[in-house]
Write a structure and sequence with these properties.
Layout lengths: L12 E12 L2 E13 L5 E2 L2 H12 L18
Antiparallel strand pairs: 1-2, 2-3
Amino acid sequence: MKANICAHCGGIMEKKLITVDRRIEDRLFIFEHVPAEICSQCSSRWFSSEVLKDMDRKISESLEPARIEHIPVYSLAV
């Protein structure tokens, strides 16, 4: 089986399960165990259209999350 090549740098893409943060307007959504291909050189990420559609569906249909996290927010404003 031939490995996929990164479109950005030509590195080898490796299949992994990762955590993805998505921000929509002022809301933050965290997805765990997301199938992705990650470049071993530049860390570019690639997601299949099915994975992206599934994330969008969970957000748009307000499906019950696996859990709720409380996230600290810090400001560096002077």
